[in-house]
Each structure stands twice: as C-alpha cells, then as structure tokens.
Write a structure and sequence with these properties.
It is built from eleven helices and 15 strands. By secondary structure, it is an alpha/beta fold.
Length: 449
C-alpha cells in the first residue's frame, strides 16, 4: 500500500502498545505491564480527513523476555524503522530519561530518520514538566501524552498527519478503494501460520520460531498477488484451556477469536506429521458457528514425502465431520508448494458466499428437500415449512417460514444446508437459516412451499 508509515519504537513497557491503540482508536495490540508482550510488527491504517497513514507498533528495543527470539525481534524493529517516514520514540515521564532511551535516540539520529519524541504517562498537566528531561536525547520535537487517559492523543495525531506527505484517504474525498479480502490463518501452535504469512508477503514479516507460542498478537499483513490485494491475519496458536497461564495468553486467544470473526475466509491449518485432535475439532466448530468459509489446510507436506492429498482426505474428513463441505488443500509453507492453490480456493469461497439464487429457485429446492425428508414433528404438532427466501449473502442466509419454528432441529438445518449447497453455486460454504413463524395461509395445500 502506497502510504506513509509511522513507526512506534522505544524500550519495553513505556506504553507503545497503549499509544498505538489510542491513536488507532481501538484495542488492537495487547497491552500488559509485562515487558516484551509485543514481538511482531502490528500494523493498522489510520484514516484522517487530510489523508491516511500506516501506524506500526513494534517490540521493545534492548530488552527481551526470550533470549532465543531477541535477534528476530530486533530485526523486525529495524525493518520497520527502515521503511518509516516518521518515527515516534516513546519514553516514560515517570521514570525519566534512561540510558537505553539515549541509545535508541542515538540509533535514530544516526539513521537520519524524522523523529518525534512522545513523552508518555503524563496523566495530568503538572506532569508535563517532566518532558524537559528528554531534551538531552538531542531530538528537538517533543509531545506529551497519556495514552491510557487519551490525553494529548488528538493533538499528537494531528501533528503526525501534518509531518507526513499528503495522500488521498477514504475520508478525504478520493474514490473509495475496495477493501482487500481478509484471510485469517488459524490453528494449533507451531503449525506454520507465521511461515505461511512470510511466504505470502515475500519478506520476514512476522517472527518464525520452533518455540511454541511465539505469536501473541493477531497481526494483519497486507500482500498482493498480481492485481489482487489481500490481508492475511496471523493469529496466536490455539491451546487447551489448562495451558492458558496468564493474561497475555488469555488476550492472545481472545484476539484469535476476534480475527476469525472479522475475516472473510478462515484457513484452518494443521500439520502433516501431527494427529488431528480435539483442539482442531473445537476450532472447526467455532469457525462454522460464525458461518465463515473455511479452507482446511494441511501444512508441512515436505515432512511427509510420498504422501498425497488423496491419502489425507479420508482421515481429515473422518476427524472433522462438521466441516465435510469445506475444501482441503495440502501445502508446504516452507517451499511454497500449493500455496497459490490455497489462495485461489480462498478466493473461490469468498465468491461463493455472494451467490444469491432467486426465491423461486430456493423454494423449488426446499420443496424437493421437504418431500424427501419431512420437517420434525410431534404427535400433536406436525412441522410444516410454507416457503423460503434468501435474505442475505456472506454467508448465504435463508429465511424459513413455518408453523412451529421451535420444531426445527440443528440436524434438520444441516440436512437442508446440504441440499441447498448441492443445488446452488455455494457448495463449499456454510449456510445460515433464520426460522420465522408464519400462519398457514387459507386455501393453500399443506406442505406446499
């Protein structure tokens, strides 16, 4: 995306993620008092009347909670700074100017970057006097804020926008751009989600490590294939409830679920050498409960030589019967094998979700389904569906009008969904039903739709 980049840097625990959330206007980055929570680059587009810019949160510089990841985290920060049009150096007013603040400022000066020092945690006007201590950093531009209380955020955002090249934004009167398709990569820990993100982006965009739980935040990564633009969402690996040890783990899981909800298509990743277990079934059930199109993806095929997709198919279908309609693609994110096929499948599912048959076609299929298998009934209450109409897309949403809505069971809805999928061009996406009460019109024959 051709727009200015604003990168937030600083030592750990000075409030970088809080500032990121405050400027963006929504909680995106995980905020915790524990140093080192943010590891990857978190990016969001901030829209202003004067234009738009990409805001980037980074990990804390200089100190890391994991020595194994220290070099990778530093590399992510350096890449972000290299591409930055403006760097916000965040410091802590309460702790004063620290040696590590001076080291970071020296690096930024040597790199020739435009820098604005943000003196954070100035909760009250009387705290602003602490900012004077940071003139020793040798950077003349200072601004005081309290990210937690949103004090000084509006003024800071205006100052940032004024310091950047002007670009057309969606609020700025330019032509509205089509929103890129969002693909959420979900699955258990260490199945290769981050490796796939980096392959799609064609750069080391997120951290990749054999250490389980490396990814904590959900990370949006924009990438293009030909003329098509996508947003891939890297998420924290799903884990059992008993493995959630602290608030960081809790918020990571919550962000993963939020990512599925805002995605257009979910890519449910598993790995070839590992068994498909209860966590995978729970994840598949959750994706289906949100009516999200899903691509079942077996990664690390490079570790299963001589095994084909046809070999995996019966096993996956047997373990995940609730998403029997979802397509299966076997890939290697490391080598790129079948990754383009995965993207093409995701695009096809997104297109399927927009199919809207006519009401007469819907009722024809409904009549055939009801004739083949009658709706659930009781001895005193026969279930009758009078007619149906498709009222929405993405997901395809069908309203059923019947005499006794409470008689419709989940199993009968699944039966109807399978019939509609078989009849229409959305054979691989979930179908949603809205069941409404409607009295039988006088003069109609029972069971007619």
């Amino acid at each position: 995306m051709d727009m200015p980049s604003v990168v937030i840097v600083g030592r750990p625990n000075v409030g970088k993620s809080s500032l990121f959330n405050a400027i963006y206007g929504r909680r995106v980055a995980i905020v915790e008092p524990t140093p080192g929570v943010t590891r990857d680059r978190i990016c969001q587009v901030v829209e202003r009347d004067s234009g738009a810019f990409e805001l980037v949160d980074t990990g804390g510089m200089g100190l890391h909670d994991s020595e194994e990841l220290a070099d990778d985290i530093e590399m992510q920060i350096l890449i972000a700074i290299e591409h930055a049009d403006l760097v916000l150096l965040v410091v802590d007013a309460r702790e004063g100017c620290q040696p590590l603040d001076k080291d970071i400022a020296r690096q930024l000066r040597d790199g020739g970057k435009k820098v604005l020092v943000v003196v954070n945690k100035c909760d009250r006007p009387r705290d602003d006097g602490a900012a004077a201590d940071f003139y020793s950093l040798g950077l003349s531009e200072l601004h005081t804020t309290s990210a937690t209380h949103r004090r000084g955020i509006a003024e800071l955002t205006e100052k940032v926008a004024a310091a950047l090249p002007q670009t057309p934004g969606r609020r700025g009167g330019g032509a509205a751009e089509a929103e890129p398709m969002k693909i959420a990569l979900v699955g258990r820990r260490n199945v290769g989600k981050s490796t796939l993100i980096n392959y799609l982006a064609q750069e080391p965009r997120v951290l990749v490590s054999e250490i389980p739980g490396t990814t904590r935040d959900s990370v949006d990564v924009r990438f293009s294939v030909g003329d098509l633009e996508f947003i891939a969402i890297d998420t924290a690996g799903l884990r059992r409830r008993k493995q959630i040890k602290d608030s960081i783990d809790f918020y990571s899981m919550a962000r993963s679920r939020t990512s599925i909800r805002r995605a257009d298509v979910a890519v449910h990743m598993m790995e070839a050498p590992m068994e498909v277990g209860r966590l995978d079934k729970q994840l598949a059930d959750y994706v289906t409960s949100l009516y999200k199109p899903c691509v079942l993806t077996v990664n690390k095929m490079d570790l299963a030589p001589g095994v084909s997709q046809e070999d995996f198919e019966p096993y996956i279908r047997d373990r995940l019967p609730g998403v029997a309609f979802a397509p299966l693609v076997c890939i290697s994110a490391l080598t790129g094998e079948n990754v383009m096929q995965l993207l093409e499948t995701a695009l096809a599912l997104h297109a399927q979700g927009a199919v809207r048959p006519t009401t007469s076609e819907v009722n024809r299929v409904l009549q055939e389904a009801v004739t083949r298998q009658s709706p659930p009934s009781t001895s005193s209450r026969p279930g009758r569906i009078y007619y149906a109409t498709q009222v929405g897309i993405r997901p395809p949403t069908i309203a059923l009008f019947m005499n006794e809505p409470d008689l419709i069971t989940d199993s009968y809805k699944r039966y109807l969904a399978n019939r509609f999928r078989k009849a229409f061009e959305y054979n691989a996406v979930p179908v949603k039903f809205l069941v409404r009460a409607r009295k039988h019109a006088e003069g109609q024959q029972d069971g007619k739709t």
